[in-house]
């Protein structure tokens, strides 16, 4: 080892040891107390598969499963109500445009592409501005979204038992009409998010982060919808390229993987950003967390929820539909992601690199074989017969 080019190489070998922070503190206290300290060095073997990855897989699959059924249930309820209105409506009503607010946002191909572009800009901003103050801002934004998501999920769940409270409203300044059930649930949701934000550095804070994150993802999948397979294909294809670029290709432009640096929260003094689900590695002697980003659940979840809505509206059985196969393809793709992660010795892997081909490839192939590709690609829902099609005006007057 030399410091200057003309110095003699003395072959000095200094071992470097990585210790957990708590072990380092104990060792430092012992040395400062003039105690006799003996250290034995060893390199523990990491387990091939940690149980945390199994639970994280179950969390991701379960989140999409719950969100898909909620979305499909809402879509079927809306379709039933629309059929009732059409059945009892007059001719003037049939000629009117549907201007009712459903609270659902259908994305199109343009917004799908813009989403990935905006996400890329936001990722670069996170990378460049990563600091303690900026992460604090992200925590605040995450808490706001988590409160809204948790409140929406709890209100939808509790309204089955407290139907009257969910259907009675009160006018609140700045918020308009708010149900009594929402008013009752909101303080709990706000308190939950605030407590997590204050104590997010404790060892069990990941539980609160996962609860808020799952509630936020489920709510987004309920509000934002993919109207057809065309939009879903554009969205997942762009996300596929986005994930590969920012994990692998970005090293050529920024000398390091932008996605991995942002996910770890480097230079922020925090243990990663809050926009991900994580579980501590339970049997890994090196510690750390197994993580999955919101996008790895949310983006495939949009198209999987679409398949279940289509299956229910077309009255397909579970096996004859598309949801079961899309769900299995997603689970398999995520499983392959963890296999690749372990084979690459823990180096970050873009999950969508494996999830998108499995999920999208399965849907496109299956739809082509069954002859449903044109309907799924364009209209996105089965043809529905109008109840008035067999009724003449004179017949309706005599009823």
From TrEMBL:
<protein>
    <recommendedName>
        <fullName>Signal peptide peptidase-like 2</fullName>
    </recommendedName>
</protein>
<feature type="transmembrane region" description="Helical">
    <location>
        <begin position="347"/>
        <end position="367"/>
    </location>
</feature>
<dbReference type="GO" id="GO:0098554">
    <property type="term" value="C:cytoplasmic side of endoplasmic reticulum membrane"/>
</dbReference>
<feature type="transmembrane region" description="Helical">
    <location>
        <begin position="286"/>
        <end position="308"/>
    </location>
</feature>
<dbReference type="GO" id="GO:0033619">
    <property type="term" value="P:membrane protein proteolysis"/>
</dbReference>
<keyword id="KW-0472">Membrane</keyword>
<feature type="transmembrane region" description="Helical">
    <location>
        <begin position="320"/>
        <end position="341"/>
    </location>
</feature>
<keyword id="KW-1133">Transmembrane helix</keyword>
<comment type="similarity">
    <text>Belongs to the peptidase A22B family.</text>
</comment>
<dbReference type="GO" id="GO:0030660">
    <property type="term" value="C:Golgi-associated vesicle membrane"/>
</dbReference>
<keyword id="KW-0378">Hydrolase</keyword>
<feature type="transmembrane region" description="Helical">
    <location>
        <begin position="54"/>
        <end position="72"/>
    </location>
</feature>
<dbReference type="Pfam" id="PF04258">
    <property type="entry name" value="Peptidase_A22B"/>
</dbReference>
<feature type="transmembrane region" description="Helical">
    <location>
        <begin position="112"/>
        <end position="131"/>
    </location>
</feature>
<keyword id="KW-0812">Transmembrane</keyword>
<feature type="transmembrane region" description="Helical">
    <location>
        <begin position="137"/>
        <end position="162"/>
    </location>
</feature>
<feature type="transmembrane region" description="Helical">
    <location>
        <begin position="204"/>
        <end position="224"/>
    </location>
</feature>
<dbReference type="GO" id="GO:0098553">
    <property type="term" value="C:lumenal side of endoplasmic reticulum membrane"/>
</dbReference>
<dbReference type="InterPro" id="IPR006639">
    <property type="entry name" value="Preselin/SPP"/>
</dbReference>
<feature type="transmembrane region" description="Helical">
    <location>
        <begin position="174"/>
        <end position="198"/>
    </location>
</feature>
<dbReference type="InterPro" id="IPR007369">
    <property type="entry name" value="Peptidase_A22B_SPP"/>
</dbReference>
<feature type="transmembrane region" description="Helical">
    <location>
        <begin position="231"/>
        <end position="249"/>
    </location>
</feature>
<dbReference type="GO" id="GO:0042500">
    <property type="term" value="F:aspartic endopeptidase activity, intramembrane cleaving"/>
</dbReference>
<dbReference type="GO" id="GO:0005765">
    <property type="term" value="C:lysosomal membrane"/>
</dbReference>
């Amino acid at each position: 080892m030399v410091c200057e080019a003309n110095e003699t190489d003395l072959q000095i070998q200094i071992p470097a040891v990585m210790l957990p922070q708590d072990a380092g503190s104990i060792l430092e206290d012992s040395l400062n107390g003039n105690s006799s300290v003996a250290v034995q060095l060893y390199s523990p073997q990491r387990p091939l598969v940690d149980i945390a990855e199994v639970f994280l897989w179950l969390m991701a699959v379960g989140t999409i499963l719950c969100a898909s059924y909620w979305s499909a249930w809402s879509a079927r309820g809306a379709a039933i109500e629309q059929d009732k209105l059409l059945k009892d409506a007059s001719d003037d009503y049939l000629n009117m445009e549907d201007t009712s607010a459903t609270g659902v946002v259908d994305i199109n191909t343009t917004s799908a592409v813009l989403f990935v572009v905006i996400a890329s800009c936001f990722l670069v901003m996170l990378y460049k501005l990563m600091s303690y103050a900026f992460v604090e801002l992200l925590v605040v934004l995450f808490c706001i979204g988590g409160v809204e998501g948790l409140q929406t999920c709890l209100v939808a769940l509790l309204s089955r038992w407290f139907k009257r409270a969910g259907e009675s409203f009160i006018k609140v300044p700045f918020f308009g009409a708010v149900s009594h059930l929402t008013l009752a649930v909101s303080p709990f949701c706000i308190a939950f998010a605030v407590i997590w934000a204050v104590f997010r550095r404790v060892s069990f804070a990941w539980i609160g982060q996962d609860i808020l994150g799952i509630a936020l993802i489920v709510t987004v999948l309920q509000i934002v919808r993919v109207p057809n397979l065309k939009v879903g294909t554009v969205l997942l294809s762009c996300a596929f390229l986005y994930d590969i670029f920012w994990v692998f290709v970005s090293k050529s432009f920024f000398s390091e993987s932008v996605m991995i640096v942002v996910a770890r929260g480097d230079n922020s003094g925090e243990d990663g950003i809050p926009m991900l689900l994580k579980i501590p590695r339970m049997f890994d002697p090196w510690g750390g967390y197994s993580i999955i980003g919101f996008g790895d659940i949310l983006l495939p979840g949009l198209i999987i929820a679409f398949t279940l809505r289509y299956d229910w509206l077309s009255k397909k059985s579970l096996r004859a539909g598309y949801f079961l196969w899309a769900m299995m393809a997603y689970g398999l793709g995520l499983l392959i992601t963890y296999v690749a992660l372990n084979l690459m010795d823990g180096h970050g892997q873009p999950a969508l690199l494996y999830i998108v081909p499995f999920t999208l490839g399965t849907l496109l192939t299956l739809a082509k074989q069954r002859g449903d590709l044109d309907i799924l690609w364009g209209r996105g829902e089965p043809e529905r017969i109008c109840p008035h099609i067999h009724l003449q005006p004179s017949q309706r007057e005599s009823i």
